[in-house]
From TrEMBL:
The keyword Cytoplasm does not apply. PANTHER family: SHKT DOMAIN-CONTAINING PROTEIN, TYROSINASE FAMILY MEMBER. This is Tyrosinase copper-binding domain-containing protein. Belongs to the tyrosinase family. Its cofactor is Cu(2+). GO terms for molecular function: catechol oxidase activity; metal ion binding. Keywords: Copper, Disulfide bond, Metal-binding, Oxidoreductase, Thioether bond.
């Protein structure tokens, strides 16, 4: 197995002790005027939020198995149940917390600043762009799934997953296409959701003109790289920490969130509002949202497995992050990130200390995923064939490219930004690589939040101080989905500029391109959509949390 060899656990990193607090649930009685782009879409819930909050009673069902959407298609009995459950959800009174629209509004509330964090009057609760992205969405799906099961009185019900990491699952799932079905949503890009069109995981509002088999190969390679590049350090895959009250942090989503954004963009309408899937405020109105996120959740499960089921962040500010949902008994409940962790983690020093307090019960949410092949985990030819390889340096048009210096730079779609970046150390030994991963960091990324932004990053070895014409190997992307807010007059859509950060693990990539002995690298940033300014490009060595056995 290409990514295999992750045997025993070793080398616990003693991360810095930070004086902060986990993200806590907001006061639901204070919902601000969060808005979706269309003016009639106020997503605050109609109920007061003054209900009593209980601890969640985790389900005691048999293990329920989520299945791939393209395979449940012909299971008439299952499809009837699924559609009936969604139909009933749509027919509930508009102000019922289980109502279809209210379920969708939850997503809008937690990304469009409906609630401020406890004890603050201006720090919104935001469930994207950080390490709470995966746990929050896992719970969100879990409750949605349990409510659907309850509505049809079926304790074994599961939602399907959009199996976009395999060839047969890479088209828009047919089960959502029937206009007469409650699973249908008219607000989609009709060019993509029909006719077996292949999803493009690097989509940025221009059509990929490559052949289907080439797009499939590119998708599988992107998924493979995402895992391989971030296997030794969870934040590269899952996102950076966010702690209570923090205002000025540079948000960094992990590469899994980046991949997931492409499906949002590709499914949503191509017009200015990108409804429904292409804008966070409206995304969950399309039933395919939950099916897509079910696969995102599955990717997390696979990542965890590949890392020996190690808990990703031994940090109470992650483990104790707490969320509120209405459960399948119509009760408002609070749940902690740590409570969903499905397996016992034994401390590698063998002192049998269970690091996580609340996760002693395996598979506490009582669901799993049908085992299907993982074509991206095998051997695929992902390396770009550089046209330049056979040429002598005299034949190449080499260009002098400078260092980044300090002035922020606006990316220009027709003229990619290319910079020379020094590496902290070259020719590192295997042991050094296991202890520290080389990470390419792009900081002070500013985007306009009312539009989606994407740039792709490539890495190449320079010829001395000169860069060749080839951008080199694809290292990863920055994607920020539109996140519109309404101004005071109800029409204004100018989003504030917010800073972000991109971190890409490049240790395996440099091995792949034989760059071990390069002192410097040429980094190329290609703007694909939106407007983006970046404030710096550097390479750092970060302590791994799992040995990099790649
Ligand atoms: Cu909350 Cu796919 O996003």
């Amino acid at each position: 197995m290409l990514l295999g060899g992750l045997g025993g656990l070793y080398g616990v990193t003693a991360g810095p002790k930070v004086l902060a607090e986990p993200i806590m649930p907001p006061d639901l009685s204070k919902c601000h005027d969060a808005n979706a782009p269309a003016l009639d879409n106020h997503c605050c819930p109609p109920y007061s939020g003054s209900e009593k909050i209980l601890e969640y009673d985790f389900p005691a069902t048999p293990l329920r198995v989520r299945r791939p959407a393209h395979l449940v298609k012909d299971d008439q009995e299952y499809m009837d149940k699924y559609k009936e459950a969604v139909r009933r959800m749509k027919n509930l009174p508009a102000d019922h917390p289980w109502n279809y629209k209210q379920q969708a509004n939850i997503h809008c509330q937690y990304c469009n600043d409906a609630y401020y964090q406890q004890n603050t009057d201006d720090v919104p609760v935001q469930v994207h762009f950080s390490w709470i992205f995966l746990p929050w969405h896992r719970y969100y799906l879990h409750f949605y799934e349990r409510i659907l099961g309850k509505l049809i009185d079926d304790d074994t019900f599961t939602i399907p997953f959009w199996n976009w990491d395999t060839k047969d699952g890479m088209t828009f799932p047919a089960i959502f296409q029937d206009a007469a079905s409650p699973l249908y949503d008219p607000k989609r890009d009709q060019r993509h959701v029909k006719d077996g069109k292949i999803l493009d995981l690097k989509y940025a509002y221009t059509e990929n003109t490559a052949s289907d088999s080439e797009i499939i190969r590119e998708n599988l390679c992107f998924i493979q790289k995402t895992f391989k590049h971030s296997l030794s350090l969870a934040e590269l895959f899952m996102g950076d920490p966010v702690r209570a009250g923090e205002k000025e942090i540079q948000e960094a989503n992990g590469q899994l969130e980046v991949i997931h954004n492409a499906a949002h963009m590709w499914v949503g309408e191509p017009d200015r509002y990108k409804e429904n899937m292409g804008d966070f405020s409206t995304a969950a109105r399309d039933s395919v949202f939950f099916c897509h996120h079910s696969n995102v959740d599955r990717m997390w499960d696979i990542y965890r497995n590949l890392r020996g089921n190690r808990v990703e962040f031994e940090d109470n500010d992650w483990l104790d992050s707490t969320f509120l949902f209405h459960d399948e008994n119509e009760q408002l409940v609070k749940v902690k990130a740590s409570q969903m962790l499905s397996r016992i983690y034994t401390h590698p020093c063998k002192c049998n200390r269970n690091v996580i307090r609340d996760c002693l019960n395996p598979t506490k949410l009582r669901y799993t995923f049908e085992q299907v092949p993982l074509p991206w985990l095998g051997k695929i030819n992902c390396q770009k064939t550089a046209e330049t390889k056979s040429k002598s340096t005299a034949e190449l048009s080499l260009k002098r490219v400078g260092e980044f210096a300090t002035t922020p730079k606006a990316l220009d779609a027709s003229n990619p930004l290319r910079v020379i970046v020094a590496r902290p150390k070259k020719n590192r030994k295997k042991k050094e690589k296991q202890e520290k991963v080389e990470v390419l960091q792009i900081k002070d990324i500013k985007v306009t939040t009312n539009e989606t932004a994407r740039f792709d990053v490539y890495v190449a070895v320079p010829y001395g101080d000169l860069a060749g014409p080839d951008y080199g190997e694809f290292a990863g992307s920055f994607v920020r989905l539109a996140h519109r807010k309404k101004g005071s007059d109800g029409t204004q859509e100018q989003g504030p500029k917010k800073k972000g950060k991109l971190k890409l693990g490049i240790t395996p990539l440099l091995e792949d391109i034989d760059a071990e002995d390069a002192d410097k690298l040429v980094v190329t940033l290609v703007l694909r959509t939106g407007s983006v300014t970046v404030g710096g490009v550097s390479i750092k060595l970060l302590q791994t949390d799992t040995p990099a056995v790649i």
